[in-house]
C-alpha cells in the first residue's frame, strides 16, 4: 500500500513567526525555532518532519505565503 | 524512510506562493488576516487567468498599500471612496474585472454612502470587505462594527450601545438591495475556511465576468495588534465573539 510523505520549505527571512501554521498542521509537524531570523522573529520549522503528509494546510493559512509544500508517494515496505 | 532532501524537489511541489503575488515583504503585522486574503485573491486571479484584466481599488486603512503586493493594475482611493472609484473604472472599462478592497472603518463608517449607493446601482464590481471590528491602522479605535462591550482605544471600558449604537451589520443591509447579486460572509482562520473563502472569491470574479452585478464578500478578520492578543488567540476570540454577531455563510445568491 502506498502512503504519502510530505515536507515543507519555509522562507526563513520572510517568516514573521505568527504561529498560524503551527496550529493548522493536523500532524503537529511545525514549531517555532528558538533561533530568530534577521528581523528578530522565531521562524517556523519542521520540528517533527517524519509526520508531514504534505496536506498544504500550513501553506494555506500563512499570511505571508512563505511556505512551500512538497509531497511524494512511498511504498509501505520501502 | 525518505529523507526530507529527497522530498523537497521541484517535481514534488504541491503548494507555493502564487505568481500574482509580488516578492515584497508585506507590512502587515504577523498573523494579520489581510495577508491571507491577499494570497487567495492572487490565487483566484491566477487560476481564472485574469491577471491582465483585473483592476483593484485599494482603500485607506492598513490595506492602503495592497497595490504593492499583487501584480495587477491598481488605483488607490480616498478614505471610504473605493466603491465610487471602482464604479468609474468599471464603467469606463466594462471588460475589466474591477474590485474594491476595504476595511470596516473604510466601508462601514466614512464610506457608508459610497458603498450603499454603488451596491444599490448594482455596479459590476467585487467588494472585498475586511471586518476586523476596529480601526487597525490608526491604533485600534472603535468602528461601527465593534462588538458590544468590546474594549478599544476609544472605548476602553467596552463599547456602550446606549451611547454609540449597535454593531452595524452592513452586509445584511446590503443584501436587501435588489441589484446586488451575491452576498456572503466568510473567514480565513482555518484551512477549511480559507478554501471556502477562496471559492466565494472565485464565484464573485466569475460573476462579474458574466456582468451579473455587485458581488459582496465580507471576511470576518482579526486585527491582533488592535485586539492586543496573539494571532492564534485572536482567531479563537473571533470564533467565540465575532461569529455569533456576524454569522458565516451565504446571505444572497
Ligand atoms: C479622510 C480621512 N479621515 C481619516 C483618516 C484616518 N484613518 C486612516 S486609516 C483609518 C481607519 C481604517 O480602519 P479600517 O478601514 O477598519 O482598516 P484596517 O486598518 O482595520 O484594515 C482612519 C480613520 C484618513 N486617512 N482620511
Ligand atoms: S503540509 Fe500538512 S502535515 Fe506537512 S507541515 Fe504543512 S500542515 Fe503539517
Ligand atoms: S494593525 Fe491590525 S489590521 Fe493592521 S496590519 Fe496590524 S493586525 Fe493587520
What number of domains of chain B?
Answer: 1
Largest interface: A-B, 37 and 37 residues
Beginning-to-end CA distance, first to last residue of chain A: 10 Å
* Assigned CATH architecture of chain B: 3-Layer(aba) Sandwich
Strand content of chain A: 35-45%
Order of helices and strands of chain A: EHEEHE
Structure summarized in a few sentences:
Chain A is mainly β and 78 residues long.
Descriptive account of the structure:
The complex is a heterodimer of chains A (78) and B (253). Chain A has a single domain, classed as Alpha-Beta Plaits (2-Layer Sandwich). Chain A has two helices and four strands. Chain A has helices at 20-24, 57-61; strands at residues 2-10, 30-36, 42-46, 67-75. A two-stranded antiparallel ribbon of chain A has the order 1-4. In chain A, strands 2-3 form a two-stranded antiparallel sheet. Chain B has 253 residues and is of the alpha/beta class. Chain B has ten helices and ten strands. In chain B, α2 crosses α8. The longest helix of chain B is centred in the last third of the chain and has 19 residues, at 191-209. The chains are: A mainly beta (78), B alpha/beta (253). Chain A binds chain B through residues 5-7, 9, 14, 16-20, 22-24, 41, 46, 49-50, 54-57, 59-72, 74, 78, and chain B through 1-2, 4, 6-9, 12-18, 21, 25-26, 28-36, 39, 188-191, 194-195, 230-232, 235.
